[in-house]
Amino acid sequence: MALRVVEWSTGTVGRHAIAGIDARPELELVGVWVSNPDKAGRDAGQLAGLGRELGVRATTDRDALLALKPDCIVHTAMTDDRIFDAVEDLIFFLEHGVNVVSSGPVILQYPRGVLPDDVVERIRSAGVRGGASLHVNGIDPGFANDVLPLAMTSLSQRINQVRCVEIADYSTYDQAMTMTELFGFGGALDQTPFLLQPGVLSLGWGSVVRQIAAGLGLTLDEPLVERHERLPAEEDFDTVCCHIAEGTAAALRFEVIGTVGGEEKVVLEHVTRTAPGQAPDWPRPTRGDGCYRVEVTGQPSMTVDLHHHGEHGDHNDSGMIMTAMRLVNAVEAVVAAEPGIVTALDLPPVTGRGLAG
Question: What range(s) does the 2,4-diaminopentanoate dehydrogenase C-terminal domain occupy (predicted)?
Fold first, then answer.
């Protein structure tokens, strides 16, 4: 019998998740939650842009969706600007016995050492009481910097450092709040955006560093180290969602670093441009506009570039698809997992079984 699934939100990732749920023979879409009342009553297939109806109408009624007794919620709502409210939502689902796979808050990808112990325990306990599991993942934070690098280390004889890098041109990334308020693109260089406030990078990506360290059996120095560099725009230009004026912030490179005895052992790095040709001295993909790169230095030293693009060639579109499908394809494993918080270290291999037919 197929697992009953509710999709929570129909933004960019949510639309791809609906398509993915519909494609999986082991899953049945039974409900869709929307925050916008104008979307209520519309068919899920229409909201996902599938060109056909799925017979499932969207609603703003949370209780009505829980009354459907879903096995799992695929939660893809924006959480960057409401982290702790989102945590409360996830606890509510767990307490009502519903498993959840979620794209955020990314802090929950591996919350140990990132969130206070009492908060982690409250989430875990909610899952135990409800007999439900929570798994937060995606592509980054997610597969590109948990399963992929740890799988590569299985080939190692000696590991000096693991470095995970996102290299991307965000000019087609259609998330205005993220681009302007979080990253500070288009803002004055003497102003510090939210992302670069002390400790915020470690909140956002510290889970990545700590999970890799846990997978390698490392005890990290505290606190994690943060570094960043910003470059100005050389001329006025527009991205898909915001204007960037000459002299304002246009490129960002940052690192979150886990050290052991002062030695950099696990590094999460982002290289973010908003137009081609920026920051020529920073790391670049070997082809295309973006990639996820994993470098394991040691014996042997290894580098893997994960290149991706959608059917129409855009890497930001494919990044959203990968985030959605990492969640959708994990539903069965998360439903079968022990109650509580489930990380990539706890799951069996997750594949696209059923999608190649």
Answer: 145-348
